[in-house]
Amino acid sequence: MKISEKRQYAVITGDIVKSSRLSVSHRRWLGSELKRASTAARRVFGKIVPLPLDQFRGDGWQILVTDPGRSLRVGLFLRAWLMAEAPDSFHIDTRLAIGVGSISIMPGRRVSRGDGEAFQRSGRALDRLREPRRLALVWPEMIGPAAETLTVLAPVLDALVQGWTPVQARALVGRLSGLTQERIVRKWPEPVTRQAIARILARAHWPVVRAVLDWLEKSNLQRLQS
After folding, report:
1. Is 176 exposed, middle or buried (0-12, 13-18, 19+ CB in 10 A)?
2. What is the pTM of this model?
3. Which one of 16, 63, 152, 153 counts the least CB within 10 Å of its CB?
4. Residue 56 β-bridge partners
5. DSSP 8-state symbol, 188
């Protein structure tokens, strides 16, 4: 992958919450499901996710996003995917640290072997995350009121996401993918009405989540144009 030191990228680094408690069978499932989530994210988001999700250190993973403004959407998609696909009665969540900045090294297709500001900010932010926080967004180039707003919104959004049930997460995977409620109904694993999907999304606070994502993407676009 060709990189430009003049461009800004986003690196998302994550690890699985309470992974030491996972059974052997759940660990096998997790490794396979991260690969499926990666494939789905690259299909949904296209060129802005140019490389597969890279797994390392057992429960750690990392992915590169070439459009920082949409990096939070990609991260929440991956988080919702794992919540939705977890085996029955098995709750899973992943911490996310998104670092935005330049990239100096991007060897081959292994994201975890890259280096630069985005990598360093993402990795350090994940190391600093402590429960109950499971989301960090480090974007030093965003300044002024936008930076202050981001500081306030990130923990609020994280608190909402931690409350998602598997059913809510499944519906949110669809909305984060850009699907309408009608298309989510058609793809649902069992018969469901559009009204039921609307209620599920409302209980998951999708209007709030969407507003945060729209604001961040718009703020990034305005910053680039200024």
Report:
1. buried
2. 0.95
3. 152
4. 60
5. S
Question: Are 197 and 184 a contacting pair, CB within 8 Å?
Answer: yes
Judge contact between 13 and 97, C-beta under 8 A: yes
Cβ neighbours around 174 below 10 Å, total = 21
Q: pLDDT tens, 103-139?
A: 999 878 899 999 999 999 999 999 999 999 999 999 9
Strands (E), 66-109: 94-101
What pLDDT score does 115 carry?
Answer: 95
Contacts of 31 (CB under 8 A, 6+ apart): 55
pLDDT at 226: 54
Q: What is the CATH number of domain 9-225?
A: 3.30.70.1230
State both tokens at 172: 């949110």
Domain ranges of the chain: 9-225
Contacts of 155 (CB under 8 A, 6+ apart): 133, 135
